[in-house]
Amino acid sequence: MIRLSILFILFTCFLSCNAQDSPKVKIPIIVTEKVRSDSDDPAIWVNKADPAKSLILGTDKGNDTLDGGLYVFDLNGKIDYDKSILGLKRPNNVDIAYGFKLGNLMVDIAVCTERNANTIRVFSLPDMKIIDGGGIPVFENESDRAPMGIALYKDLLTNNIYAFVGRKTGPKTNYIFQYLLKYDENGMVKGELVRKLGKFSGKKEIESIVVDNELGYVYYSDEGKGVRKYYAHPDSSSNQLALFAKKEVKEDHEGLSIFKNPDGTGFLILSDQQANKFNIYPREGQKDSPHKHELIKKIHASSIESDGSDVLHLPLNNTFKKGIFVAMSTDGTFQYYRLEDFFNW
């Protein structure tokens, strides 16, 4: 178990914050180089052999004249063009999973949606090799396809890895499809549809999705309504467990990430996009009510109208000694915050 002094700071704040705004705007320690067009969503990959060589991945949606890409940054915010994947057809969200069985190999994977191709794309890490045969089709035979959000779930008992995929628009029920990622006879990754789930308010869209592997839940932002919570395992009930954050968001409910403590506690982090703030909720819910997630704190950050975020509670290098929070900003960058700075309430 990793025991860091930040835990004591966080839980002291738990008792004293009373859902107040953070008094100061949080400033990133590093801002990445700009992508070509339209930054959207980040994901953190940890190099377990050498954490200082960990990577930040970030999508660039592109525009009407430029294709998008999946960019790879180092911990100094510099783009690694040798690893970055350009020429993608409007990639939106990206997520990472560790320990995918690719034939006789175990590899880490990055998966992003490719909206204008109606596919999800799979790359091995850290080399960013294409291992999907050109893309895995999603929402086949549906009138609404265009995939946007994605989150990966690893079943800790079987080690199976699943992709939860959302779309630009869709029906009031079964908005999200869950796919088992499998190695096929051609040496590539394919997706097998195993479940349909998820309510939709009909307001705006659903993009951001996040999975809590350890506690077994999936959350997504119904942008005009709130955050919805379900069980993550494909054999579980598909009944909604919670709908929260209904009133304390200025306009759009956007990016979601989870700060995890080893004991199962922590925080759900929601981008209150038009307020340029991040709303903080208890990961574990409340005592005797694990699906009750009430606002703890609003953190005002310098990230502009953030679509997506990711957070890591592990030491990486001398800059990020306790962990890192990464947020997309609409100026074409991703912003890196030291964990102790971001959560210093």
Set down the secondary structure blueprint.
Layout: H1 6-16, E1 30-31, E2 39-45, E3 55-60, E4 68-73, E5 85-88, E6 91-102, E7 105-114, E8 119-125, E9 129-130, E10 136-137, E11 147-154, E12 161-167, E13 176-183, E14 189-197, E15 206-212, E16 217-222, E17 226-231, E18 242-244, E19 253-260, E20 266-272, E21 277-282, E22 297-300, E23 309-312, E24 324-329, E25 333-338, H2 339-342
Antiparallel strand pairs: 1-25, 2-3, 3-4, 4-5, 6-7, 7-8, 8-9, 8-10, 11-12, 12-13, 13-14, 15-16, 16-17, 17-18, 19-20, 20-21, 21-22, 23-24, 24-25
Structural summary, described in words:
By secondary structure, the chain is mainly beta. The protein has a single domain, classed as Neuraminidase (6 Propeller). The chain is 4% helix and 44% strand. It has helices spanning 6-16, 339-342; strands at 30-31, 39-45, 55-60, 68-73, 85-88, 91-102, 105-114, 119-125, 129-130, 136-137, 147-154, 161-167, 176-183, 189-197, 206-212, 217-222, 226-231, 242-244, 253-260, 266-272, 277-282, 297-300, 309-312, 324-329, 333-338. The strands form 6 sheets. Strands 6, 7, 8, 9 and 10 form a 5-stranded antiparallel sheet that branches. A 4-stranded antiparallel sheet has the order 1-25-24-23. A 4-stranded antiparallel sheet has the order 2-3-4-5, with no helix packed on it. A hairpin with a 5-residue loop joins strand 13 and strand 14. The longest helix has 11 residues, at 6-16. The model is unreliable at 1-17 (pLDDT under 50).
